[in-house]
């Protein structure tokens, strides 16, 4: 394999093909390491920008999985359990026990209840009461009117909630650079705001 482009071409293929030369696994390991670094970065950003970053994370994870399948098929093709690439890393095959997938939880629960002794059933199946907060709030509000609020709950004080919306076509003139420095473009609207003072702004 002469260049990295050929490795990236492997990702775009629908099927997984073994490498012609197992030494090229070393290059794939480098790519996977880069993917891991990007994944770590994007997963941190994901908390703040879920949707757009989730797409990038999914794409990277799919690419990583495809490359790992290429390595696996190569090891199987050359009948090797593991290969070591000094200074880079090591790859190896191992058997992983298959897990049970639940196709119908209700049917499974009925089956287990019928087939298992009570102790085994209770060890496998947990029964946790779930409190519906919306319904609970309504019930406690009614109980409060009758002076029957239990000491195990406490009501928060009423508070004001701010709603913010932007009109279609709104152009954001605030820029935040990589150092988190904030810059406001010097537009006519901003000049007017500066001249009037912030007290002129209504929120």
Distance between the termini: 62 Å
The major pleated sheet works out as:
2 strands, antiparallel
Strand residues, percent: 5-15%
Class computed from helices, strands and strand pairing: mainly alpha
Shape: flat
Quaternary structure annotation = single chain
Low-confidence stretches: 172-176, 180-184, 187-203
Order of helices and strands: HHHEEHHHEEH
Reading side by side through the largest sheet, how are the strands ordered? 1-2
Counting H and I runs of at least 4 residues, what is the number of helices? Answer: 7
Radius of gyration: 29 Å
Q: How many strand units?
A: 4
Average pLDDT level: 75
- Determine the fraction of residues in helical runs and give it as a percent range: 40-55%
Written account of the structure:
By secondary structure, this protein is mainly alpha-helical. Among the domains are: 4-92; 101-147, no CATH class. The chain contains seven helices and four strands; from the N terminus they run αααββαααββα. It has helices at residues 4-12, 25-46, 50-77, 105-115, 118-124, 133-145, 188-196, and strands at residues 82-85, 89-92, 174-176, 182-184. The chain has a two-stranded antiparallel sheet with strand order 1-2. α2 runs antiparallel to α3 (50-77). The longest helix has 28 residues, at 50-77. The protein is flat, with a radius of gyration of 29 Å. The protein starts with a helix and ends in a 7-residue tail after the last helix. The model is unreliable at 172-176, 180-184 and 187-203 (pLDDT under 50).
